[in-house]
């Protein structure tokens, strides 16, 4: 199982609030029973060619299979056109998931959820695909505010319970993207669930450009898709965040010039 969380970030301006970012984050563990686990499994995906993100929870085998195929098709311009809006792109995604699921061995089908985030003409959208004997999809309506819009997997209820404290009006991180991330880190640290790991993998979508792979740090250790990595100058090509959700340098793990200091 897993913990999968999605949240939005918004700019608060006099002319009206507007979503400026959308994040998907997950733990990195897959497990077999109560004793065997692997802590470096990719659960969030992003396109290099289009502003589209994916994440999953529940069953591992089928979502991994179909998402790897989808990303290959998307990044080789075999599925989307530049003029496709988010709804049309998701319709194409869902059709492939349904088709592949119909060909999948019945006895191997397990419950899962796939999230698909997209952006078109500045508008962010999030879709949810669920399989539990029947495959269904729905749009998760996004408000123009910074808030959690999905939490699921075996750790989902623990995260939701923990989030209540972060929503307290007296909390200085209430209603912020960093508050959600802090809550996620705290939940993983405290969660006593063998099926959920401790390291975070993170991917984001902003107003411009395509999916952003985001490296994370915990106790000055670098993680990429949940796997601990040593520094490489190649890692300077992606964004990095520390436990406070501050933007940092991948080389020295210090705040980037101009990056805002965040309270914890």
Annotation keywords:
264 residues; alpha+beta; 5-stranded antiparallel β-sheet
Can you summarize this structure?
The protein contains 4 helices and 15 strands. The chain has helices at about 60-75, 85-105, 155-165, 175-190; strands spanning about 5-10, 20-25, 30, 35-40, 45, 50-60, 110-120, 125-130, 135-140, 145-150, 200-205, 210-220, 220-225, 225-230, 240. The strands form 3 sheets. Strands 1, 2, 10, 11, 12, 13, 14 and 15 form an 8-stranded mixed sheet that branches.
Question: What features would you describe in this structure?
Answer:
With 264 residues, this protein is α+β, with helices and mostly antiparallel strands. The protein is 22% helix and 33% strand. The protein has helices at residues 61-75, 86-103, 156-166, 177-190; strands spanning 4-11, 18-26, 30-32, 36-38, 44-46, 52-58, 112-120, 123-131, 135-140, 147-152, 201-206, 212-218, 221-224, 227-229, 239-241. The strands form three sheets. Strands 1, 2, 10, 11, 12, 13, 14 and 15 form an eight-stranded mixed β-sheet that branches. It has a five-stranded antiparallel β-sheet with strand order 5-6-7-8-9, covered by helices on one side. The chain has a two-stranded antiparallel ribbon with strand order 3-4. Helix 3 crosses helix 4. It starts with a strand and ends in a 23-residue tail after the last strand. The mean pLDDT is 90.
């Amino acid at each position: 199982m897993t913990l999968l969380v999605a949240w939005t970030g918004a700019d608060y301006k006099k002319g009206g609030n507007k979503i400026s970012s959308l994040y998907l984050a997950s733990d990195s563990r897959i497990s077999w029973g109560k004793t065997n686990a692997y802590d470096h499994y990719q659960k969030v995906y992003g396109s290099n060619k289009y502003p589209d993100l994916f994440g999953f929870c529940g069953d591992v085998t089928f979502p991994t299979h179909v998402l790897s195929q989808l990303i290959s098709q998307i990044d080789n311009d075999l599925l989307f056109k530049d003029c496709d809006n988010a709804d049309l792109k998701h319709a194409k995604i869902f059709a492939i998931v349904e088709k592949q699921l119909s060909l999948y061995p019945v006895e191997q089908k397990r419950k899962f959820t796939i999230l698909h985030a997209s952006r078109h003409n500045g508008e962010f959208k999030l879709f949810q695909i669920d399989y539990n004997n029947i495959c269904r999809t729905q749009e998760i309506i996004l408000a123009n505010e910074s808030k959690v819009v999905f939490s699921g997997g075996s750790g989902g209820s623990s995260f939701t319970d923990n989030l209540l404290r972060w929503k307290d009006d007296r909390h200085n991180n209430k209603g912020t993207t960093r508050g959600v991330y802090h809550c996620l880190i705290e939940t993983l640290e405290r969660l006593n669930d063998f099926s959920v790991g401790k390291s975070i993998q993170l991917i984001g979508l902003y107003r411009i450009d395509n999916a952003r792979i985001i490296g994370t740090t915990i106790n000055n250790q670098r993680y990429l898709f949940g796997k601990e990595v040593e520094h490489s100058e190649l890692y300077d090509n992606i964004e990095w965040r520390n436990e406070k959700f501050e933007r940092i340098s991948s080389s020295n793990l210090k705040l980037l010039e101009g990056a805002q200091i965040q309270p914890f």
